[in-house]
C-alpha cells in the first residue's frame, strides 16, 4: 500500500467523482482508476460503488476512508515535526590546510544554513596530526590521506586530487622549462633539477610522495602550508601540491604544471567513528561534508579533483 493510493482514495471520496478527483490531483482518470483497483485488490474488498452520478464509498470504503484520513494527518504531523525540530550537539571535524583552503568556508556556510544549532569544532592541522587525533578519538570526523586508522573507524574514499608542480614562472624559465609552461606538464627528471621545498616526512603529502616517487631531491622542508606557498611565490623554490593548496595564490604568477611520468593522484578519505557510534549531529555533519564536496566538484570549483563513488 502506498501513500499516494490513500491520497487518491480520499480525494475521490471527497470529490464524489473520479473525473473531479483526477483534475484536483492532476493525474489521468485511467491512472487513478488503476491505483484504486490495486488498493482494492490488496485489501480484498470493494471500496467504491460506481453509479450514474459518480462514486460513493461502500461500507468498507467508508470505514477505510476515516482511518486513511487519520493516517495522512499523522504523517503530516510527522513531517511538520521533522521540519520544526533542530539537531543539536557538538561535532569535532579535522581538515588538512589544503582541504580547509577550499572546503572550509563552504562547509561552515552549509552547516550554518542546515544545522544552526550544531556547534562545530573545526581543527586545521597536518594530515599526520589529524590521524593521531582520530586514533585518540579527539575528532569525530576528518578528511585525511591514509587509511591507517583504528579498525573500528569508518573509512570512505571521498575524492582524488591530481598533483602539480608549483613554481614561480621566472624560476622555471631560468631552467629552460618554457615548453613545460606552454604544455602545462612536467616530468620527474626535470622536477629533480629544481630547488624543491616540501613538508617533512611526518606530513601526509610527503609520505604519499615518498611512496610513489623514488629519489626525490628535497632541498627545504616546511610544515606550514601558508609559509611554504609564500616561499614558492616569492623565492626561487618549487613544490608539489594538489590544486587545493594553491587557492590563496591564484592571482600570483605561480605556474601549475601537471606532474607526469609518473602521474600522481592522491585519494582523500572521509573517516569517522563507526556509524553506530556517531551521534545524529555527527551523522548530519558527515552528510553535509559529502554534499559540499560533491557540489564544489560538480560546479567546477575544485579544479583537478575527481569525485569518487559514495
TrEMBL record:
HTH lysR-type domain mapped to chain residues: 1-58
MF (Gene Ontology): DNA binding; DNA-binding transcription factor activity
Cross-referenced Pfam families: HTH_1, LysR_substrate
Entry's Gene Ontology BP terms: regulation of DNA-templated transcription initiation
Keyword Repeat among record annotations: no
Keywords: Activator, DNA-binding, Transcription, Transcription regulation
This protein's record includes keyword Electron transport: no
InterPro entries per record: LysR_HTH_N, LysR_subst-bd, WH-like_DNA-bd_sf, WH_DNA-bd_sf
Family matches, as PANTHER family: NITROGEN ASSIMILATION REGULATORY PROTEIN NAC (PTHR30293:SF0), TRANSCRIPTIONAL REGULATORY PROTEIN NAC-RELATED (PTHR30293)
Family note: Belongs to the LysR transcriptional regulatory family.
Name under which the protein is recorded: LysR family transcriptional regulator
The species this protein was found in: Acinetobacter amyesii
Lineage: Bacteria, Pseudomonadati, Pseudomonadota, Gammaproteobacteria, Moraxellales
